[in-house]
Amino acid sequence: MVVTAVEAERAAFERGLAGSARDLRAAVTLLAGGVGAAMAAAATAATLAREPYDVVVSAGIGGVFPERGGLADLLVAERIIAADLGADGPEGFRSVTELGFGVTVVEALAPHPLTPVNGCEVVRGDLLTVNTGTGTADRAAWLRARHPAAVGEAMEGYGVAVAAARFGLPVAEIRAASNLVGPRDRAAWRIGEALDTLARAAVPIMEGLLG
Ligand SMILES: O=C(O)c1cccc(C(=O)CC[C@H]2O[C@@H](n3cnc4c(=O)[nH]cnc43)[C@H](O)[C@@H]2O)c1
After folding, report:
1. How far, in Å, CA of 64 to CA of 117, rounded?
2. What ipTM does the predicted assembly reach?
3. Domain extents for the chain?
4. How far apart are CA 205 and CA 111, in angstroms?
5. What is the CATH number that goes with domain 2-210?
6. For residues 134 and 54, what is the distance between their CA atoms, to the nearest angstrom?
7. How far apart are CA 124 and CA 173, in angstroms?
8. Could you report the per-residue pLDDT of 112-128, keeping only the tens digit for each?
């Protein structure tokens, strides 16, 4: 099953699968589950409860750390990390794991091999799940310092990962970079190009995961 946040991402993935030689479109359930980890977790869990699946993929657009990649690159998670789930205080932020409440880091299936998709680089590393999209250099620097292996951020991966784990299933997260993580610059977002990358990556992603 592939879980996106919004319909445009779901449709892009479907468009990509429609071109597959083997009938991947029939083999893959595509779900637009909503924006944010809570919406993603609820939608994923509700769907997983209805029928069995082999693997769950969180897919969509996301922000890329500019020193790790560029716009329209494909980001592949090696780990999915809830980056701002915790508590702030005078000594700084502590994750819920550091507070003794749970797990904020989930190992991900990173499909191999995933070679450049129509000229776009494939960048592997940690993908951060945030509740608030980064909009300042300070926030980007804070995330970078806490997560040196992070390649990008989005808002749903951890929710999908938690739901998949509840059903004993492996999870992957794939993001096509629509924007840079840093000071807010909405005019610089390249959502159309990112959706094209997502469409072109759909078949290699699913072949990499399903074999
Ligand atoms: O308007 C803004 O400044 C802004 C900043 C970050 C995120 C948003 C969204 O509306 C994101 C909603 C949607 O897109 C994914 N996404 C894409 N890029 C990012 C990002 O840099 N940080 C977090 N989420 C991102 C996200 O997964 C949501 O599904 C607006």
Report:
1. 17
2. 0.94
3. 2-210
4. 6
5. 3.40.50.1580
6. 33
7. 10
8. 766 666 677 899 999 99
